[in-house]
């Protein structure tokens, strides 16, 4: 989603986090080309890459980079798309530019787990810990840090149900 109201990089990030999800991260050349097509001729726009050894603002692990010749040159800590070349440039974060946000998308996915434990696996503290560990592993695999995970509770309030043991005849 291209937002034409120019903002500094930090203002753009804040706006995206409040109104959408995050400034856009570019994972490959195809995504880069799709974004470039939306930028008006002669314009530049912010994306979610910033200098802290240039990491994505959503903590995604994409290593895709598309720097213009001689870039990054240390002139700034934030990255912009250059419309004319489809390449990237580092610029001062206080400059105001249009920017791209991730559009909010809701993906509902069910993950089934089999848990073996001597503890009460439906204890709220334990279920919270398990959910946090799952989220951390998914973030490591590229899930946005802003993703929301929750347990699906049964009618009785439990998250996990006991597996019935089959008897041998």
TrEMBL record:
<dbReference type="Pfam" id="PF00059">
    <property type="entry name" value="Lectin_C"/>
</dbReference>
<dbReference type="InterPro" id="IPR016187">
    <property type="entry name" value="CTDL_fold"/>
</dbReference>
<dbReference type="InterPro" id="IPR016186">
    <property type="entry name" value="C-type_lectin-like/link_sf"/>
</dbReference>
<dbReference type="InterPro" id="IPR001304">
    <property type="entry name" value="C-type_lectin-like"/>
</dbReference>
<protein>
    <submittedName>
        <fullName>L-selectin-like</fullName>
    </submittedName>
</protein>
<feature type="domain" description="C-type lectin">
    <location>
        <begin position="1"/>
        <end position="102"/>
    </location>
</feature>
